[in-house]
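Anyone else keep sequences and structure tokens together like this?

Example one:
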Amino acid sequence: MRVFRQRFRLEREVVVPVLVVCSLMISVVGGIAAGIERPYPGFALGSGLLLVVERAVAVWAATLLVLVVVDKSLRGRLPDEISGRGVRYVAQEQLDDVAGTTADAGDAVTDRLDELEAALKAFGQRMEGP
């Protein structure tokens, strides 16, 4: 198991930077391929180069958002919120608290069912008795 974790960590240290760099290159190529048409939109400030850069940055940011969410999801953590500010995950302490509360509730339900089964069995024996 230790060897698997080390190998996974090593693969992850290689794969993540490759994905980031490749996504940047694809974003730049996509921004160039989209073309530059006149008149430029207002946010390009009259510059075709700025338009390409802004498109590339927007596509790259969206791609990185998807990569982060997929990476964390594969490791078992889903985002609590995705908004214009980014991705928010629940704090690990909150997850541990919820897991503990759920386990306690499950134990309480099991104990209560055991008590009810015992009471039902005793009632059944009294009904059969005399």
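And example two:
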Amino acid sequence: MRRIEYALFLAAPVLVTAGAFSGLLWLIGIGAWALIAAGPIEMIYRP
């Protein structure tokens, strides 16, 4: 579970930055949802 959380935390800024530079809103949205998904995983599954 920890690998998924780290992957989401790392993918979020990459996707948002790529979306901002390319002007693609859907990449920014996917990055935002990755960060939103990583938050509850951090809160619920953190030992």
